[in-house]
Amino acid sequence: MKTPACTLTSRPDLPASLETALVHLGRDSAAASHAVNPPLVRASTLLFPTLADFKASNGGCVFESPRYGRSGTSTQFELQQAMARLSGAESCIATPSGLSAIAAVLGAHARPGGLILLQEGVYGPTRALCEQVLAPLQCRVETFCSAEDLAGKLTAASFLVFIEVPGSLTMQMVDVGAVCALAAAQGVPVACDATWGTPLFFDAHRHGVDIAIHAATKYLNGHSDVMLGLTTGSYAALEATRSGCDRTGSHVSADACWLALRGLRTLHLRMPRHHTSALQVAQWLSLQPQIERVLFPALPTDPGHALWQRYFTGAPGPFTVELAPCSEPAFTRFIESLQWFGLGTSWGGFESLVMPAIPHHLRGLPVQPDAGRLLRLHIGLESPDDLCRDLAAALPLLQGGAG
Hints:
By secondary structure, the protein is of the alpha/beta class. It has 2 domains: 18-264, Type I PLP-dependent aspartate aminotransferase-like (Major domain) (Aspartate Aminotransferase, domain 2), CATH 3.40.640; 267-399, Aspartate Aminotransferase, domain 1, CATH 3.90.1150.10. 35% of the residues lie in helices and 14% in strands. It is built from 14 helices and 12 strands. It has helices spanning 18-24, 51-57, 74-87, 98-109, 124-134, 147-151, 176-185, 198-201, 235-248, 254-264, 267-285, 305-311, 328-337, 384-394, and strands spanning 91-95, 115-119, 140-144, 158-164, 190-193, 211-215, 229-233, 291-295, 319-323, 342-343, 353-356, 374-378. The strands form 2 sheets. A 7-stranded mixed β-sheet has the order 1-7-6-5-4-2-3, sandwiched between helices. The chain has a 5-stranded mixed β-sheet with strand order 8-9-12-11-10, with helices on one face. β2 (115-119), α5 and β3 form a beta-alpha-beta unit. α3 runs parallel beside α10 (254-264), α4 packs across α9 (235-248) and α11 (267-285) packs parallel to α14 (384-394). It is globular, with a radius of gyration of 22 Å.
């Protein structure tokens, strides 16, 4: 695992070390209360000492300056500033969830007759939003599977290219640099769901991404107790998204932002541990007879490994495995026998998780086919040896009969 570089440049007095930056960013308001942590400021009404100050508040950047509770307080502002700095971006917008951030970006670029180009294998709700909300509004949505495929689909009617690295469930890698170069040549912005890598492992903007979207619900918070989305980019790239969030009242609570600031303090400790543990478990699983293949770009055997090496400095916990053909009852026994893996959606917290990974085209089936069955594992902060022993005890159950 390579050591991630810090791209913080706007304050020359800030230490170059990312580890130090994570500890100290977003704490400016703490000094007034003589506290280590910044105060949690909840407010719906904000007061101004003079009429001139009140009028001036409407000229500030919405979501970055005091105006009204919906725009935020110092708590939201400090998280957004910290995330922008960590991402090497000018600006950040906090929203109530990762999906709300995705919806805000897609909605800001959707036009009747316009074209949004969506990478195959993106997060299921992202594709559902495009197909069930944007398409009925006469926004065209087409999918692509590679940079070469994208090259033949970019047109003058294209308003946005949306990618996710790696793709949800399939863990498919796309050539980020090539996609961004193609889009830039046509003047089309690229938005990327960059949740998996976080700014620690994936420097999205340096590789050409205009808008980076993070479900801070996951690694950035890291404690499985917050719903939060963070979107970074230049002021120009986020102008339409910011305006859309203001019009629709897409605002996040101060409590969620305060908790996320807490999570950032240990990001540089948690992510390398997720990386080493996930790699150990994935390598062990790849040798088991009940496993057909492990879909994890950090493995040299993965078809996306070279692209992962080019664009990432590490690989965190979630990955997908394809099981040898097994019945639904055997699959159920396997899942329910696991001791250290909780059965639940999401990932990025301290705990390990397991869930059936159902591709988009199979979502409507009541029972999944025995062959090609996928399973997603999130490797948490437990001992990887314990996790392997847990899986070793459960895997033989996949070979049992239907009874």
